Amino acid sequence: MASNVYFWNLRAGLKNNNEARMRKLLAAAGKGLGLAAGDLTALKVHFGEQGVTGFVRPLLLKPVVTWLKEQGAKPFFTDASTLYVGQRGEAVSHSLVAAEHGFDPLLLGAPVLIADGLKGASQEMVRIRGKHVKKAFIAADIAAADALVSINHVKGHEMAGYGGALKNIGMGSASKQGKMHQHITTGPRLDVEKCVGCGACAAVCASKALTMGPKRKIRLNLEKCVGCGMCFSACKTSALGINWQTDIQAFLERMMEYAKAVIATKPKPCLHLNFVLNVCPDCDCIGFTDAPLCPDIGVLASQDPVACDQASVDLVNAAVPLWPSRLPKGIKPGANKFLAVHPHVPQDMGLAYAEKIGLGSRKYKLIEV
Fold first, then answer.
1. Tens digits of per-residue pLDDT, 7-48?
2. Under 8 Å CB-to-CB from 310, ≥6 apart: which residues?
């Protein structure tokens, strides 16, 4: 059965300005959410790594906050710590990056809460019956929220091929342990030459997989590693890092199962907003924003994350290619732009599996508002 995906193509005017169009989109897509007075509503967003300019601009999100408050909800912007060591690896730096990128509670009317706590260890274990995942580790405050609205910047991604609602929910809502669970199954990569023998990683390793060896060099016992990811933040010399050698299809399936676990924490339908603007080749994690692959297209909204992502991908692929960009010369409208820049990714980019496990439908009805 086809799901409704509501679409604003960015056209506006003096009597029907941007805020009015966004509110119309929300009213159409938000029917039946069942929000009650006082519902603590997580606005799951990617604040952008330091140096990135392509994240969803906060000014576009103020009407979302206002609309939710009119429904009686209490919205808050949120994200979880990154697995890699960067400006968003713990809550203090992450909150500062959010503030620098314009997420000001006094201007937007909603606070910023980093959902997995100070160091990324605040999590809720959610049981599901997945092919890969039986226990999902979700950032505690996202799991505890009464309702969820995902705010998604549609763009490419180095491993997933594209990033939209499903990636923002599945990967972005996971704690450090949950992110590691999705990325790898073999534990971290150890570069002994970079180890300075400070012992910080061993001090945070609850499973004792990391111990101090001869000559003050760290030793890693992969059999004891539980994949919590705490050592990445503790190591300041990059001696411990992510082992990116993983099966992409299995990675995508684990990510979709995590998205299912996040949605399972909510007794009410979730709403997903895909901003198909500044469609750059890579994730907003990488520290810069490359030239877009196509013109700005619009904003999509649906209670079905699979349909919302499928419609977004289809609109991007149908759009005129832009140069200069990472796209190969000669690509025509209709070709898959995400696969053109990330050819190692499976053709469906995980959407078929998301549909298979009941996250939604790839069939949709696009309704312009």
1. 999 999 999 999 999 999 999 999 999 999 999 999 999 999
2. 351, 362, 364
